[in-house]
Design a protein that fits this description.
224 residues, alpha/beta, Alpha/beta knot, Trp Operon Repressor, Chain A, five-stranded parallel β-sheet, 9 strands, 32% helix, elongated, binds 6-chloroguanine, tRNA_MeTrfase_TRMD/TRM10, S-adenosyl-L-methionine
Amino acid sequence: MRIDIITVLPELLESPLSHSIMKRAQNKGLLEVHLHHLRQWAVNEYGQIDDYQYGGGAGMVMMCEPLANAIEHLQKDRKYDEIIYLTPDGERLDQKIANQLSLKENLLFICGHYKGIDERIREHYVTKEISIGDYVLSGGELAAAVLVDTVGRLIPGVLNDETSALFDSFQDELLAPPVYTRPADFRGWKVPDILLSGDLKKVEEWRYEQALKRTEERRPDLLK
Ligand code: 6GU
């Protein structure tokens, strides 16, 4: 998979994409992420990419021309399966959307800032709008990092047995069960006996019950 990201703050995306599983995905050649600084397509020598909004009101809007030129420049080299605008008024990201996107070959993300981007870019280029939750971030970059991570780790071959996505919270509509590691007794706080029993079937049943219990308690909405 290749992901291109148009941003005014590439620095904000560099570190999250350079470590751990995202690093391994890229080193294995399974994921390529390319950051594109929007200022390259600024409308003047001052690097302008935003302007006051029509109708008045506080806050700048990212202009059509730099974004259209950036998108069209990138489209010359490849056809994108989706052009995704990260915005708090987009469709709320969940595991189902992540699973769907993980099957794509070429994705283009657009990170907004200030009051957002000119509506005409959304109408004429953007094919999907995604929010990562009901709260406001200062820009789309952190949301884009979240989206690359959640989609990237689902690309076949990125995770191994140890990091398998199969038992993640949400992958089967349940939250993950509690986990423990050594020692079996830490200050008198004991690991549940079943996990030490060696009976794999019992362990599996216990994990399923715990996942169900946790989901009922914390996220009953997932069980509906
Ligand atoms: Cl995608 N962008 C911004 N700016 N804020 C958000 C968001 C995105 N998702 C949730 N809050």
